[in-house]
Structures are given as C-alpha cells and as structure tokens.
Write a structure and sequence with these properties.
InterPro entries: AB_hydrolase_fold (IPR029058), GH29D-like_dom (IPR059177), Lipase_EstA/Esterase_EstB (IPR002918). This is GH29D-like beta-sandwich domain-containing protein. Pfam families: CHB_HEX_C_1, Lipase_2. GO terms for molecular function: hydrolase activity. One of its GO terms (biological process) is lipid catabolic process. By secondary structure, the chain is an alpha+beta fold. The chain has 4 domains: 251 residues, Alpha/Beta hydrolase fold, catalytic domain (Rossmann fold, 3-Layer(aba) Sandwich), CATH 3.40.50.1820; 91 residues, Immunoglobulin-like (Sandwich); 70 residues, Immunoglobulin-like (Sandwich); 130 residues, no CATH class. The chain is 16% helix and 29% strand. The chain contains 10 helices and 30 strands. It has a 7-stranded mixed beta sheet, sandwiched between helices. It has a 5-stranded mixed beta sheet with strand order 9-15-14-11-12, with no helix packed on it. The chain has a 4-stranded antiparallel beta sheet with strand order 19-18-21-22, with no helix packed on it. α3 packs across α4. The protein is globular, with a radius of gyration of 29 Å. It starts with 22 loop residues before the first strand and ends in a 7-residue tail after the last strand. About 2% of the residues have low confidence.
C-alpha cells in the first residue's frame, strides 16, 4: 500500500480483504493534500482511477495495472493524479458475488480521491471485473448479495471518460455462475439504467448531461481482446452500445486477457479520449520557433494560450543531451542545463552546439516541449512500412535513419530496445524506432501502430456438447475439449478455412494426443452404464442437457438411443453412496448409412 500520509484510506468492507485498509497505490507519498491539488491545477488533467480485475491487485503481477501507470506517466500524468485501489486483498478470486461484495470498496475509494484532490470528475481505466464493478458503482448497486438492489446514489457524474478493457458487461454465458450468468438477475439489471437517456451508455454523446457541476457527457471506450477467455465464453460481452468499441488480436485465453492491459497500441487508441472533462479550463504553453535545426545563439520563447492567471511565471528549462545504448536501454546523459524564469513571452538562448530538449511550464497549463539541433546535423528516423491495412500472418516493419552513420534501435514496449532497423510482428503491436549517431545525438522516437487482421470467418459460443451436436467438432475433438473445459462450460470456436478451431491464430486441436474411440459403422441403438459403482444413483439425459433430480434414472435396463443422422450427447450425473456427484458425457455420432 503506497499513499500519501494524509490520504484517508478507506477500509475494505466486503469480499477478500474485508476489515483491512484498501491496498494499492496512488498519489505522491512524499507530499500532502495541498501539494496534490496544486499539481491538479498545474497539469489541468482529470485524475485517473485504475481498477484491476478478478484475482488481481493494483500492484501485484500479473493482473496489476502498473503498465497503465507507466503509459500515463509517459503521456504527461504525474503520480499525484494516478490512483489504483486493491479491493480484493492480496489478489484473491471472488467468483460468485464479486460486484456486490466489493462495490462499496470502489465507491468509497472514488469519493475519497475526489475529496482529497478537490475534483468532481475522474477518468477510469478498468480491466476485466473492474469494468463491471465501475459500472455498478455508477449505477448505484447496494452491497447486498440477495436480493440485488440498485438504491445507492448513482455516480455517473463522477465519470468523465470510462475505458473498459476486456470487460464482461453481458455476462459470461447463460451457463456461467453467480453474478456472471448472462440473463441472470445481476447482469440483466446492470445495463437497465433509465436516467441520462438510458441505454448501455447513459449520459453518453447526444444524451442529457449529468447532474451537478460540471454538467457533462461521459465518453465510453470498450476494448475487447478477441478470443481471450472472456470473449471466448460470450463473444461481444465487452462491448457497450453507444461506446467507441474496438477489438484487438492479442492472443487467446489468458494471454490476450493480460496483453490488452499492457498494450501500448490499445493505450494509444484511447489516450486522446482521456481528460474529456478537465478539472480547470485548458491552457497550454507554446514554444517559438518550433522544433528543428537552428544556429547557435537561437532564442526560444514561451507564451501561454488560454491563460487564466496572467501573473503566473513561466519556467523554461533547456538540457543538452547525449544518448547511449546500454544493456538494452537508452541511457540519456545531460551535458548542460540552462534554466530561466520569467513572465509570459520569456525566452532562453541556446549557444552551445548539440541536441537540446526544451521544456516550458506554467501553473495551470499543459507544458510546452521542443527538440532543437543547434549547430549540428539533425538525426531522424522514418518508419517506411505502411500501416493503412491490417496484416495477415506476419509483417516485417522497417525504419530508415537520416544518416548512414547512425545506428537504429527498435522497441515493442518503449522501454527495452534492440539493435536493428527492422522487426517481425505476428500480432497487434506498437513499434518504436530511434537512431543514434556516433556523437550520441538521438533522433526523436518514431512510433507506429500495426494491426493484425482478425483471421476467422465466423465464430460460435457454446459448451462442448453444443459444438458437437451442431457438427462443429467430431468425437476426438469432443474428448479433447471436454478434457480442457469440462462438459458444461461455454467456450468459443472460430471458423478458419473451413475448420472450427479454438485459437484462430494457431489453428490446431486444443489438446493433442486425445484417445480415439474405435470407429463405428452404425450408430448404436442402445447403451448401458456398466461402470456404475454399487450404491450409486445415475440420472441421464439424451439431449446433452445437465441432468437434474427430475431426469430419468437408470435402473439397469439398456437405454434406447434415438435414431437419426444428427449427433447426440448422453449426459450422466452419478451420485455416489457417499454423496459425491460426478458428471460425464458420451458423444454419439449421427447415423452412417449402410454402404
């Protein structure tokens, strides 16, 4: 837990971690409330709440949101305006009732941050469970497992931009459990807001504004990791009608689910939507002349547009920098620093030859930044690979330096770098290049996003029984998938080149080496359950549905199999003498005509 000493940390009131102070991180632990409010005014950026998902914590790998904090820092956000609670203790899974258990934790944290920073509106970047939990807070969910009640004060007015990464707003299928069941009480009522124009994106674009000051509309951005374990169970569950909805090819299963919160490409897509409701009127510092090559003795001046306090000074800082590549990182060295403080229109003179980075700041204004090549040849790098269209299998991305003497480096995360002017991609990525000449002069970083084409023709979600009966899989695949998912858990298959596969990026069976039953020339007319232990009770169905107490009970007499060409699945529930229950399923292919 890392917060400022005077921040009133709420107590975890439900679910894992109940009774302890909420963990996580937020703000600058070295300063107090007054200093935090100054930063809010200086940056003019809406604070951001990062809300993790199930089984995660804000700062514990792998389900943390530390990469989002890194992206925000690089985009000009100070630690004072980045906050992330851990509402599941150390990262415990809350499977059945995660929303009603933890809604007060997030609601209390949201209000504590707003009071501490003296702001009315924040942006939220949420992942997985965090998406629906944030929505439940805005909707007014009461912390009560049953019945589900929505009688708490709504918090729509607190949201400026709501970013939902790999959420499940429509549940995880009708066969899921607890609050995740599609069509269940919680999921049905979650998206039933009537205020703010109603629909799935209340108070969105074109809707009436929120109550309270400042009245505003909410910007919604929903990102889906196509084929991850959430999207596979219920395709489209991460989308909201009325939102900016994007789908990304980042890998299947948990790989894609984790990658979506760690992807620079995804962040770059929603970054322009942040700060839709700034805490103060926007202002910006402008530098003249703009970045570029200049002669020694050039004077760089700074002026403010949209200024609310004409008396506030401008601070200009110029650093002459050289850069070296060391063990996979770009290490800058500041060779010289010049600082000037003055009124609007103040300037700084650059006399020494070299590469200069100039920053101009003023209270309540977005900083101005520029790069100047003083008395030296500018170094540049240009990405020559086009990104206008998605690529299919793989893509070679190449960049060219402005000087043959410069060395080019590339990076896929903006932190770790490798030597080389090209890199091969096999999934969505943001590629960065930089060129460094022998004197340590580095080019501005060139960055471009590339998208891999979603490679499937169709998709279908269902249990292994559903897929078998629909003819998407054969007996061998039934055995393989039931070993992986069980008989009654829904998952998604993708149609690629005529075959239904689990991972469209790697079209191969889910489990190799599955046992093959002997080939049958004719569909059996009856079956028996010969492996039943004495004292056990067996109930069964012939349509693949889950056997219940009202399903037929096997009495030892062979069970007739319905004739026909359509495959069927015999589902069986065995209750042992000690009360333990076990489910199995037997796939029976359709009839094969006599030769």
């Amino acid at each position: 837990m890392t917060y400022p000493e005077d921040f009133p940390v709420p107590t975890d009131s439900g679910g894992p971690g109940a009774g302890s102070l909420l963990g996580g991180f937020g703000g600058n632990p070295q300063t107090d409330r007054a200093a935090h409010r100054v930063v809010v005014a200086e940056r003019g950026l809406a604070p951001v709440l990062l809300v993790h998902g199930n089984g995660g914590a804000a700062d514990v790998r792998p389900w943390d949101l530390l990469d989002q904090r890194r992206f925000l820092r690089a985009a000009g956000y100070a630690d004072e305006i980045i906050w992330a609670p851990s509402y599941l203790g150390p990262g415990t899974v809350d499977l059945q009732t995660p929303h009603t258990d933890n809604v007060d934790d997030l609601r209390d944290f949201l209000e504590a941050v707003c009071r501490y920073l003296d702001v009315a509106v924040v942006d939220v970047i949420a992942h997985s469970l965090g998406c629906t939990l944030t929505y439940a807070v805005a909707r007014g969910l009461r912390r009560q497992n049953a019945p589900i009640v929505w009688d708490q004060p709504p918090r729509w007015r607190r949201l400026g931009t709501f970013v939902a990464l790999a959420g499940a707003f429509h549940g995880l299928s009708a066969g899921s459990i607890g609050e995740w069941r599609t069509g269940g009480g919680f999921m049905t009522e979650l998206l039933a807001e009537t205020a703010g124009g109603g629909g799935e994106t209340p108070f969105g674009a074109g809707d009436p504004p929120t109550d309270g000051a400042p009245p505003h509309t909410i910007t919604y951005f929903c990102a889906t990791a196509a084929g991850d374990f959430v999207d596979a169970q219920n395709p489209g569950t991460g989308r909201l009608a009325g939102a900016v909805n994007r789908s990304y090819n980042l890998g299947s299963g948990t790989q894609g689910h984790q990658a979506i919160k760690e992807s620079q490409a995804v962040f770059d897509d929603f970054r322009p939507l942040l700060n839709s409701v700034p805490p103060v009127p926007p202002a910006a510092v402008m530098l003249q002349p703009p970045s570029g090559a200049q002669s020694p003795g050039v004077r760089i001046t700074a002026t403010i547009t949209g200024r609310s306090d004409p008396a506030a000074p401008i601070v200009l800082t110029a650093e002459r920098v050289s850069t070296a590549f060391v063990n996979g990182y770009l290490v800058p060295t500041v060779e010289q620093t010049v600082t000037v403080t003055g009124p609007d229109g103040a300037g700084i003179t650059l006399d020494e030859a070299g590469g200069w980075e100039v920053t101009a700041t003023a209270t309540g204004a977005t900083p101005g930044r520029g790069t100047y090549w003083v008395g030296v040849e500018p170094v540049a790098v240009t990405i020559v690979t086009d990104n206008a269209d998605p690529f299919d299998d793989s893509l070679l991305v190449t960049a060219l330096p402005s000087s043959v003497a410069a060395t080019v480096y590339h990076s896929l995360d903006g932190q770790r770098w490798s030597v080389g002017a090209s890199v091969v991609l096999d999934r969505d990525a943001v590629v960065s290049f930089v060129a460094i000449d022998p004197d340590g002069l580095a080019s501005p970083v060139a960055t471009r996003s590339f998208t891999k084409r979603i490679p499937w023709d169709d998709q279908a979600s269902g249990t292994v029984i559903d897929h078998f009966v629909a003819g998407r899989i054969d007996v061998d695949e039934f055995l393989a998938y039931s070993s992986q998912f069980g008989f009654f858990t829904a998952f998604t298959l993708y149609l690629v080149a005529g075959d239904w596969v689990l991972d469209p990026a790697r079209p191969a069976p889910a489990v190799s080496g599955a046992p093959r039953p002997p080939a049958a020339a004719q569909r059996p007319t009856q079956i028996t359950f010969d492996d039943v232990a004495p004292g056990s009770q067996v109930r069964y169905t012939l349509d693949g549905s889950v056997p219940t107490d009202t399903s037929p009970e096997w009495t030892g007499i062979p069970v007739a199999v319905p004739p026909g060409p359509v495959p069927v699945v015999v589902a069986r529930r065995t209750t042992a003498a000690d009360g333990r229950v076990h489910y199995t399923a037997l796939p029976i292919p359709g009839s094969i005509p006599d030769a």
